[in-house]
Design a protein that fits this description.
The protein is mainly beta. It is about 10% helix and about 45% strand. It contains four helices and 34 strands. It is elongated and about 180 Å long.
């Protein structure tokens, strides 16, 4: 009995000390708030709050007691009287029928270890429940005292916007979250020195919104504060800092800084011509190659009368005229390289120069002269018919090896369109020279015709040829040969000029023989 009295006295002293601390230190409520104006369960629940029954542990009774009744609802049941770490729930009993208590399955409720709150985990309501629990190793039961209190949870608010920099004072977001029911919310804006620059404004429905802030100072930071108040006077607030800095504005420090005025540099004339690179060329003895060289005016004044020239080797022939180059402009100059047939095989360096009236530039490139192993010469070309070209040519073997040669002939019209082609395979013995002939058919449908008569119109055609063998190849197109109108009389079925001359001579001889023979017969008859 003395022990129970001592415990009661200590508890009273602790409670008194706590109340004095709250009074003198101004400590606000935390966790749940007691609503003293609702003194009974019906008025408390009607106001939207939770009624909490007062209970006390009874460690001297049996685990099951008809006097220990309570209920499990969605708001839970709180074990009170001691620190929650001193006890743990060991069972819950449905004692609706007090004479036959029924153990409620543990899966039907949960227990929060830190607070001792028992929460119903199902939709079933147990109106009359007895809890058994272990208190400091003893088996105790929860006993209702018949009294209770009305409680409400603490309200809170957290602002997430505005924060940081905004380019305009219009439509600044005010975003926040709250906890609690039946709240009243408002906000205000103060400068960072505490001066109120926007009076308190109510927030309808405690919902996030936007606001306009026109009287801002670009050099000032501002603090927005949202206040929330619950039905019992519970209050909370939250603040964030922001500022308005429109684009294109400058701070006082930036305005005070002197911006140095950059003087425009004096114009200094510059004359320079830069030449492009010519890649190394592989050219056969006696062959030629058409090439080009690019030149750019990399100075700042125009260059006039720029012309390309070659070195003294005699291999280079200029094929383009002079040009003027504006500042930054470029031009391409054409030239060809012809390697003499008697040139020794090897590498040769050739030079090119572009000389303008104002300046000049030079460059060089390498020609690798390759041995000529096969000589190919076209000796005669005749357009013997409107749709056929005859080509005579000679192949000469130069390196003492038998060679099989493939030759490709191509004919194009004045616009470069191919109108005929043929490929031939020839064999040439070592150190031999042979004559050959080929006829190239022409696609008459690709040639121009007289619009009135529909007859073919004479046109200029161009012949070109390439060849290769198993040991030697010509990668370049031979010098094109222009083919004119049809030669030879049509009566001879396309015989060329040379062949026609032979026919005429033979005909004259036959006629002469005929008249001589006839005269001889007449003379003999007279005798």
């Amino acid at each position: 009995m003395k022990r129970e009295v001592s415990v009661s006295i200590v508890a009273v002293l602790v409670i008194a000390a706590a109340l004095l601390s709250v009074y003198y230190l101004g400590v606000g409520p935390t966790g749940q708030v007691v609503l003293s104006q609702y003194t009974n369960e019906s008025s408390c629940v009607a106001a939207g709050y939770t009624w909490e029954n007062f209970t006390e542990p009874d460690c001297n009774t049996e685990p099951i007691s008809a006097d220990a009744v309570g209920s499990i609802t969605s708001s839970g049941y709180t074990l009170t009287g001691e620190n929650a770490s001193n006890f743990s729930v060991t069972g819950a009993w449905d004692i609706t029928n007090e004479s036959e208590p029924i153990l409620i399955p543990e899966t039907d409720y949960t227990v929060e270890p830190a607070t001792g709150v028992v929460t119903n985990a199902t939709n079933v309501t147990y109106p009359s429940v007895n809890f058994t629990y272990s208190y400091d190793g003893e088996t105790c039961s929860e006993v209702l005292t018949g009294e209770g209190q009305c409680v409400a949870e603490t309200v809170s608010v957290s602002v997430t916007e505005p924060t940081g920099d905004y380019e305009s004072g219009e439509d600044i977001p005010l975003t926040f979250t709250t906890t609690g029911e039946n709240l009243e919310c408002s906000y205000k804006i103060t400068s960072d020195n505490g001066t109120v620059v926007k009076n308190t404004a109510a927030l309808s429905g405690c919902a996030s919104t936007t606001f306009d802030f026109s009287n801002y100072d670009e050099d000032e930071n501002y603090i927005v504060t949202v206040d929330v108040t619950g039905p019992t006077g519970n209050a909370s607030d939250s603040s964030e800092e922001f500022w308005v800095d429109p684009p294109g504005t400058e701070t006082d420090e930036e305005a005070e800084e002197e911006v140095p005025v950059e003087e425009e540099p004096l114009f200094v004339p510059s004359t320079q011509v830069s030449l492009g690179a010519v890649t190394s060329q592989d050219i056969i003895q006696g062959d030629s190659r058409a090439l080009s060289l690019s030149a750019q005016n990399t100075g700042n004044i125009p260059l006039t009368s720029c012309a390309l020239s070659g070195d003294s080797s005699g291999w280079i022939t200029i094929t383009s005229s002079s040009a003027n180059l504006g500042a930054g402009a470029s031009s391409s100059f054409g030239f060809s390289v012809a390697v003499p047939e008697d040139t020794t095989v090897g590498a040769y360096t050739l030079s090119l120069s572009v000389a303008c009236a104002e300046t000049s530039g030079s460059t060089s490139f390498t020609v690798n002269v390759l041995q000529k192993k096969l000589d190919f010469n076209i000796t005669n070309v005749q357009r013997t018919r409107q749709n056929r070209v005859s080509v005579d040519y000679i192949l000469t073997e130069l390196v003492g090896e038998d060679q099989d040669v493939e030759i490709f002939f191509s004919i194009t019209d004045a616009s470069g369109v191919s109108v005929g082609s043929v490929s031939q395979n020839r064999s040439i013995d070592a150190n031999e020279s042979d004559d050959f002939r080929t006829n190239i058919p022409i696609n008459g449908t690709l040639l121009p015709v007289n619009e009135t008569s529909g007859e073919p119109v004479e046109t200029e055609l161009t012949l070109s040829a390439t060849f290769n063998s198993q040991i030697y190849s010509s990668s370049s197109v031979l010098e094109p040969i222009t083919i004119g109108a049809v030669t030879g009389g049509a009566i001879f079925g396309g015989v060329g000029t040379g062949s026609l001359l032979i026919v005429v001579v033979v005909a004259l001889i036959l006629v002469t023989v005929f008249f001589v023979a006839r005269r001889m017969r007449k003379t003999k008859a007279t005798q």
